[in-house]
Amino acid sequence: MRTPQVEPAAGLPAEVTIYEVGPRDGLQNEQTVVPAATKVEFIRRLEAAGLQTIETTSFVPARWVPQMGDAEEVLAGLGADGVGRRRPALVPNERGLDRAEELGLQAIAIFGSATETFARKNLNRSVTEQYAMFEPVVKRAKADDRWVRAYVSMCFGDPWEGPVPVEQVVDVAERLMGLGCDELSLGDTIGVGTTGHVHRLLEALDRRGIGTDRIAVHFHDTYGQALANTMAALRDGVSVVDASTGGLGGCPYAKSATGNLATEDLVWALTGAGVRTGVDLDQLVETSVWMAQQLGRPSPSNVVRALAGG
Fold first, then answer.
1. What is the pLDDT of residue 257?
2. For the residues 82-95, what does the mean pLDDT come to?
3. Domains in the chain, ordered, with CATH?
4. Which segments constitute the Pyruvate carboxyltransferase domain (predicted)?
5. What are phi and psi of 123, to 5 degrees?
6. Which one of 233, 251, 284, 285 is the catalytic residue?
7. For position 60, what pLDDT does the model report?
8. Is-catalytic flag, 155?
């Protein structure tokens, strides 16, 4: 079978926006630097497969994440197509914003932490200090009518601190959204979340005035829970899902963070449930197979393995 049998499932949105993170979050942990031209081709193939929102790169210093040291080269290769409101890039601070502004980007993402240890390791800041770093970034971006997303990492567990209280995550989310961000992405960075935990967190955010119309979910598949957690979030009203083509991904600062939810696995499940994504699954699988060849290893996506043998 090349496509699932469609049997509409109750309680799901009619349409889901896939926020494709493969070119950035998917590749950032690769030890061998992928050439900029390959990254540009990857993004072009994702566009051709029907993905509307694609996070292209990151403006972190190359000494932090060497894989993202070619942001300007990648965006130059994409031209005008790479700077619109559906082509966000990660911006860690005002210097990163300066670089993004020079290229005319219309959408950016900041990345915060719900836990002290990860904030120190990833940002060299405390949880409280991260707000002071992000505030001028968001203020400047919104003054120029840029779209801003806020990531929150370690929402469901932390490899150093263990369980993360729901209210602690909500406190951080509220502070970041209070800066003026347009969208909040909840990250299960080490993939330990479960469906009940997802429901509890979304309920708690709603009580603080952050509804699912402003929330995206970002699940890693370390324990095989990413798709189940995503479907639970969709039943609670979320309609934006982060995913990475081929299941690529990881975090340089959290070694237990394995790959993201595979975009192909998500598209297969949503298609079977009667939910529109606008994505051509065959083209997406072809793209994953091509990218796996560039990286020299098979795709971890279950759907890619089933349809293309890796």
1. 45
2. 97
3. 17-308 (3.20.20.70)
4. 16-285
5. -120, -10
6. 251
7. 93
8. no
